Amino acid sequence: MRIILSRSGLPRRPLPRPAFAGPLLVFGVFGLGILGLGAAGSTPSLAQSEPPIRSAEDAFCRSEARAQVFSAPDPLNLGLREIGRRIWASCMERTANGKKQNKKQKPHKRRRHR
């Protein structure tokens, strides 16, 4: 066992390493490098493809579009992004119209039974 001197000059022993540390370090660093490159390569494309969420309705409509994009028909061969955008736009229009309709309606009067 090798003894290492610390800054104060007192001897210090290194921490024991597990037996699997050698292969783990070799493959772990290599694996992390591959994962890091894969994550770094995909993160900018995700960040560029969608603008930040602006409201609760926007978040709801995005989740609805994600859920329906693969089951929606595509007779014009528009592609997934355009179909998803159209689903999102129709959802946003519905939620905006729903808000306007709720504001125009008179409040409901509660009637008591005698």
Please, could you describe this protein's structure?
The model has no long low-confidence stretch (mean pLDDT 74). The protein has 3 helices and 2 strands; from the N terminus they run ββααα. The chain is mostly helical. Helix 2 crosses helix 3 (80-104). A hairpin with a 5-residue loop joins strand 1 (4-5) and strand 2 (11-12).
Top keywords for this entry?
59% helix, two-stranded antiparallel ribbon, mainly alpha, 114 residues, 2 strands, elongated
**Beta-strand segment tally:** 2
State the helicity in percent bands: 55-70%
Q: Name the beta content range.
A: under 5%
Radius of gyration from the alpha-carbon trace, in angstroms: 29 Å
Please, how many helices?
Answer: 3
Please list the strands of the largest sheet in the order they lie side by side. Answer: 1-2
User: Uncertain segments of ≥5 residues (pLDDT<50)?
Assistant: none
**Structural class designation:** mainly alpha
Distance between the termini: 94 Å
Largest sheet: 2 strands, antiparallel
Give the integer mean of the pLDDT values: 74
Helices and strands, in N-to-C order? EEHHH
Net shape: elongated
Give a brief description:
The protein has helices at residues 21-49, 56-68, 80-104; strands at 4-5, 11-12. With 114 residues, it is mainly alpha-helical.
Question: Layout of helices and strands, plus pairs?
Answer:
Blueprint: E1 4-5, E2 11-12, H1 21-49, H2 56-68, H3 80-104
Antiparallel strand pairs: 1-2
Helix pairs in contact: 2-3
